[in-house]
Amino acid sequence: MSDTAPNWDDLRVFLAVARAESLSGAGRVLKMDPATVGRRIARLELDLGAPLFAKSPQGYALTLEGQRLLSHAARAEDEMMRAFEDVAGQEGPLSGQIRLGAPDGSANFLLPQVCAAIVEKHPDLEVQIVALPRIVNLSKREADMAIGVSAPTAGRLHVEKISDYKLHLAAAQSYLDRHPPITRLSDLRHHRVIGYIQDMIFDRELDYLSATGLDTVQLASNSVSVQINWIRQGAGLGIMHDFAIPFTEGLTKILTEEVSLTRSFYLIRHRDNLRTDRLNRFAAALSDGMRREVARLEALT
After folding, report:
1. What is the dotted CATH code of the domain comprising 164-263?
2. Which segments constitute the HTH lysR-type domain (predicted)?
C-alpha cells in the first residue's frame, strides 16, 4: 500500500466508474479521457493495495474491496456537498447535478415537464433522468433518488408516497372500428392484447392485466413507451396510465367501470442523503410537481 492517502478527486473518479460500470461512461461524466480514468483507477488501486474492479465483457464490476469503498466514498461525496451548501447558504438557487431514476412511464410522460419547470427556476441545476425497466440501485448510487411504484422495505432507504395515479384499458379508435365491439370483460378474449413481458415484470404493481383475467399477451414489451406506440398505431388494446393518454390522439378508454386501476408513486432516497439540503429541496419540488401534473393530465381524460 502507498504511503499517500487517496484524495477526494480519486474517490470522485472511483464513484464515476462504479456508477457507469465503464471507463468511457465515467469519462463522459467527468469530461475526462477514458485512458486517464483508467490510469487514475490503477493509481487508486495501487495506493489502497487492493483491486477495486473486475473487468468483464459487461464492463467494470466492483470487487468486494470496491463494494466496501463505495459506501465510504458515497458518504464522503454527501459530506462534500453539505460542506458546500453550508458555506454557500441554503436558501439560494439549486445547483449541481441530480440524477433521478424512474420507470419509463413516469420518465416519459411526467418527469420531463416537471423537471424542466424546476430547472427553469434553478438555471444552474443539472437534472438527469435515468429511465430503467427495473428498480434503481440507490446503494450503488446509480441515482440520487428514484421514483418507484411500490414502497421498498429493505435497505437503508427513506420512502415517501408522492401520489396515486389511475390506469384504464384503452385502444385507438382505428382499432375499435375494425374489430368486434367490447361491452364486457369476456369480449376481451376476442381481441389482441398488448402488455408487459410477464417474466420481465420487475414489480408486482406492474402486473396490470391480472385485473382483466387475461393470461395471454400477443404483443409484449418491457417498455411502457413501446406498448403505448402499439396501442396508438391500432395494433391492439392495453392498459394505459391516464396521465399518458393526453399525449396520444385518437385513444378511447374501454370498460372504465370494469377495469379501473389505482397505483401509487413513491419517492425513494438513501437515508444518507436526507441531511443534504439541496436534495431535500429538490425532492420537495419534485413531489409537488408530480402531484400537480398527475392531477392536471388525468383531468384531461
Report:
1. 3.40.190.10
2. 6-63
